Amino acid sequence: MSSDGPESIFDVEFRAVTKRFGDLTAVNAVSLRVHQGEFLSLLGPSGCGKTTSLRMIAGFEQPDEGEILIGGVDAVGTPPYKRNVNTVFQQYALFPHMTILDNVAYGLKQKGIGKTERYGQAREALELVQLTGREKHKPTMLSGGQQQRVALARALVNRPRVLLLDEPLGALDLKLRKEMQIELTRIQQQVGITFIYVTHDQGEALSMSDRIAVMSNGVIEQLDTPSEIYDRPLTAFVADFIGEMNFLEGDITATSAGEFDLVTSTGVVVRGRGDATNRTRARIGIRPARLSIVAGQATGSANTAKAVVDSKMYLGDEVQVVATLDGGTRMLIREQRAGTDDSHDAIRPGDPITIQWERTAPVLLAESPDQAPTEGDSHE
Ligand SMILES: Nc1ncnc2c1ncn2[C@@H]1O[C@H](COP(=O)(O)OP(=O)(O)OP(=O)(O)O)[C@@H](O)[C@H]1O
Ligand SMILES: [Mg+2]
Q1: Which of the 8 DSSP states describes residue 148?
Q2: Which segments of the chain have a pLDDT < 50?
């Protein structure tokens, strides 16, 4: 990721943007910079403000506070049709009585572009979405996935600076969704247009995006690359929303040189890396794959915890164990079977075990984004 020099121009920039609907703050002082040619996803649960953010970029809603810049220029007061952005919705709303070619060429016709030229450009856009040969068909003769490709071609034919996509694959079944995810990333790379992609599907966001803005309650909790979001979630919300996570809470009892000791109420000592404040309460997360199991209950050293097995399940190459710590906290452990010794096969529900982990496994979490370390707009 390129660094943000003062000379950088962002395709879209939010400067402390707030949008309210009556008493409800749908988007709360959000700042965001989208790089040229980037695939950026807005990810978060229902009602967190994703669509409202997109609609403000498109110009369908006006912010109550803050500024929105498109291509470095203040967009406030510019009507939607004069903004160099196009939107693809979940409901693709093609004109049913028009051919595919006319559907795609429609926007160019509105702009007064002549027949030969607009059909030429529409054919190119259809080729890009791999629908060459379907020009004369009507939308109802196409599958859902193909209709969504037409909607995409109809937006791309305008060559917008930014394409906004609001859950565009939401209406498709899982198999088609997967295919279209691959298609969309290919198309985005081919045309080089900035994509701002709204989804509540974390797998989709992780696999497609250059960066992800994880949203909750109208704020961006974290803005980072998929691997950073997964490996180094900043807040408890992000850690919980993305993938599976085990949480432990306790008191910070020691800190030195970027390391900390956290002690839980039942005496488990978590020794990890991160800047914690001594004598505060804190929460850490550990991914299930970072935990391993030893049969029997060894006496407590740091980064081990005594537990009792609740269930064990074979998932092909992996074995998944759910176990309960003293005090009742449930832990999910996922181990590669190839790396484990035979003693795992003998583990049964009710057996005492020791769960252990490396010092690099615990991730120190903030309760809210303002406690989190500064947002990584660029890093390294
Ligand atoms: N026109 C409106 N009038 C009143 N409230 C609105 C309006 N549009 C959105 N809201 C509210 O603003 C909040 C954010 O809505 P938004 O549509 O941006 O959420 P979202 O993240 O897109 O959710 P979803 O995943 O369900 O589409 C919600 O609480 C919603 O009810
Ligand atoms: Mg929405």
Answers
A1: H
A2: 1-3, 5-6, 374-380
Q: pLDDT at position 340, please? A: 59
Atom of ligand 1 nearest to the CA of 42: 21
Which pLDDT score is estimated for 306? 95
pLDDT for 172 equals 85
Q: What are phi and psi of 336, to 5 degrees?
A: -65, 130
Q: What 3-state DSSP class applies to 256?
A: strand
Ordered by where they begin, the domains of the chain are: 12-233 (3.40.50.300), 244-365 (2.40.50.140)
Indicate whether residue 268 lines ligand 1 (CB < 6 A). no
Specify the residue with its C-alpha closest to ligand 1, atom 24. Answer: 46
Residue 155, SS3 per DSSP: helix
Number of residues that make up the chain: 380
**Nearest protein Cα to ligand 1, atom 16:** 49
Q: Which ligand is nearest to the CA of 19?
A: 1
Tell me the best of 46, 51, 90 to mutate to test the pocket of ligand 1, counting ligand atoms within 8 Å of each CB and taking the most: 51
Measured from the CB, is residue 118 less than 6 Å from ligand 1?
no
pLDDT at 372: 60
Count of Cβ atoms closer than 10 Å to residue 300 Cβ: 14
